[in-house]
Amino acid sequence: MFIPAARRSEKKQVCWRWAAISRGPLWVDAGTGSEAFSVLNKWRDIVCLGFVFGLCLLVAGNPAFSDDIPDMVFFPEGEFMMGSPEDEGLRDEHPRHPVYLDAFYLDKFEATGKDFLEFLQSNPREHPTITGWYGREPRPDMMNRPVIGLTWKRCKKYCEWRGKRMPTEAEWERAASGLEGRLFPWGRELPDETRANFNRCCFINKGQVLEDADSLPLGRTPEGIFHMAGNIAEWVHDWYDPTYYRNSAYRNPQGPGSGRYHVIRGGAWNSLPDYLRSKRRYGNNDGQDFYGIGCRCARSMKGVPEEPATPSKP
Question: pTM score, two decimals?
């Protein structure tokens, strides 16, 4: 989990401020009062500090206040440059433009067979995906591989069941490219088999062409997110519009109000190297359960987020 030092110490500072405030103006100095007041002060000290640190434990354990959510990476609010410079990338990646995002979290790992099994167990009417299953359970070798064949709506439903949501396209790119505008999630080095699972056309081989969700650590982002390039591509929240960057909102853009396809990011096991770039974007039929598309979830800073509105197709 990547947490800036200033944020790691913030909750400690708040707790000590509460402890100081709890003494209040009515605090009696034990050194100047009677013995009865001295005893009273000691008990008052114990009760007040116990109350304060109880509140601190509540805050630390509540996702609405905590920076630390298991298997998620925290990104502080701020501005980054979205899109590619004019001499790089494709037309739909232009113009490069500033975007300001509120703080958010992103899953370290793509949703796995084990994750989706838990979803199926809680949702008996849902069905397994297109390969890698024995009935309603993943094959043992697919438990830690990413689940594939999710439509956009099923990814959305899965993330909401987790108490999360789908990332926006801007959040996904912020995590993949960083503030420095990394060409690939790990940096500027070209993809190879030590960093990404890609260019393995053309058969899924019952899912065995995929790598485990926590594999290839050299391909992680500096913050520790795995497989943002290759393995499986990932749905994001936004509708796809090749000209959207010309009119994108500055703060927390949600994509166009409608569209035909939703955006896919990250490239897959069968993708050419260019699809693995952090700025690369494309759209596809969100009703199809493709062999190369899966799911990664996000979460807003303030606990369980509100899902951005998604209008129906025109």
Answer: 0.78
